[in-house]
Amino acid sequence: MRAETRIRRQAQIEDAAYALLEEKGYAGATMQALARRAGASIETLYNWYGDKPGLFRALIARNAETVQEVLDQRAGAADAAALVAVGERLLALLTGPRAVALNRAAAADAEGTLGLALAQGGRDIVMPHVATLIGAITGAHGETPDRLAELWLALLVGDLQIRRVIGTIAAPDANTCRQRAETATDHLLRLYPPQG
Amino acid sequence: MRAETRIRRQAQIEDAAYALLEEKGYAGATMQALARRAGASIETLYNWYGDKPGLFRALIARNAETVQEVLDQRAGAADAAALVAVGERLLALLTGPRAVALNRAAAADAEGTLGLALAQGGRDIVMPHVATLIGAITGAHGETPDRLAELWLALLVGDLQIRRVIGTIAAPDANTCRQRAETATDHLLRLYPPQG
DNA sequence: ATATTTCCGTAATAAGTATTACGGATTCGG
DNA sequence: CCGAATCCGTAATACTTATTACGGAAATAT
Q: What residue ranges does this record give for the DNA-binding region (chains A, B) (predicted)?
């Protein structure tokens, strides 16, 4: 199979997996429905991903790449505007349909391996990046950059993510994301002004 | 069946349901395992709760009572200490094994009815209560008490709840809960001092 | 005490699902 | 253009589970 065709087929499988995850949940996303929807065969699913958890682990791995891309954008200046820009994109990503679907899958996995993989490809990448950026903005402080990053993320996301995961709210629109990013950054810098 | 016996049997069923939910997740919590573990019969489960979602809806309903009890404690003074006390209990409740299990069940329910019930018995009760308390502490402000309550809850809980639900952290201990409640209250009152 | 309801324990039903298997079509390397 | 590998579509396998059914025991009411 040509590499190009294979990549397209992989994208079809991932799209179908996300769609099923959003519509039916992890338990309801059956391999047969996935194969039919993706226009792939069941055999291919098992040959490529091993088993059902493996398929969703692959989704999580690719999600980690998306997280990296979001963080790498606007990596130039280390000022409040850069933090707002990162927050805006980050919030849209974290509350977007794909991240929410992955979190639901992780919540359904009682063993916790999916959750661990999701955290490694998400929070464990985001936190140091944000901490470095905030540290560069605020300078030396009584509070460590790590704690400031946690604070800023709490202000930014709030309970939007858990409410998205249990299905009580829709994804916030672009305006909401920007305003929350601005407010969170403003609150952080009011509590811990630069050069404190 | 005597009312007393029935109440005890209901508690056994609820305990078993929570235990299975924590160990196996919603899909893995089978009615047969639940009956065996609770010492009840399958027929009783269906006679009392209708079906499997109905059983977990009953769990959510009883959880709402617990939330009310937590909020009603220390309802006397309207000062920062009261807010810290409420926050401490609230965080312990929200990150405790039972609330986490219910959130996992809601996340596994793609239709969203469990999530809706959980929100109605949880957030929709907590938010107005906290907003009233904060409003009484801070007095009139540019920000509405509702927004301040959201801010305080974000500071209090952060991402602990979602991380608990996807299984990457253990429940915070009592010390952590108290410190977070103190820090969240301190941050809130620094950002929006009373009599602003 | 006895008739009636309720419950337990177990089995049966019916449906769904992860995983494996296979024949025929398609694609790829030479 | 041809053989080998890969893939699709479908079916078969083996297993699990929600829900219903039923006989006998326990409790309840009269």
A: 30-49
Does domain A1-50 fall into CATH 1.10.155.10? no
Mean pLDDT of A90-119: 94
| Cβ A63 vs Cβ A107: under 8 Å | no
Give the torsion sign (CA, A18, A22, A27, A31).
negative
For the segment 25-84 of chain A, residues whose CB is within 7 A of strand C: 27-32, 41-43, 46, 51-52
- Does B182 reach chain A within 8 Å, measured CB to CB? no
Query: Which residues in chain B touch residue A119, judged by CB atoms under 8 angstroms apart?
Result: 163, 166, 168
Coil/strand/helix, residue B26:
helix
The model's pTM is 0.92
Angle formed at CA A189 by CA A185 and CA A191, multiple of 5 degrees: 120
Give yes or no for B115 touching A (CB within 8 A): yes
Query: Is B52-191 in CATH node 1.10.357.10?
Result: yes
The stretch B12-22 carries a mean pLDDT of 94
Does the distance separating the beta carbons of A154 and B25 come in below 8 Å? no
- For A132-191, write each residue's pLDDT tens digit: 999 999 988 789 999 999 999 999 999 999 999 999 999 999 999 999 999 999 999 999
- Identify which of B27, B194, B187 has the alpha carbon closest to the alpha carbon of residue B107: B27
The domain segmentation of chain A, as residue ranges, is 1-50, 53-191
Radius of gyration of chain A (CA): 19
The torsion region of residue A167 among left (phi > 0), alpha (psi -120 to 50) and beta comes to left
pLDDT tens readout for residues A11-42: 999 999 999 999 999 999 999 999 999 999 99
Residue type, A21: L
Say if A150 is an interface residue toward chain B (CB within 8 Å).
yes
Q: Which member of B108, B114, B151 has the closest CB to residue A108?
A: B108
Let me know: does A41 contact A27? Beta carbons within 8 Å: no
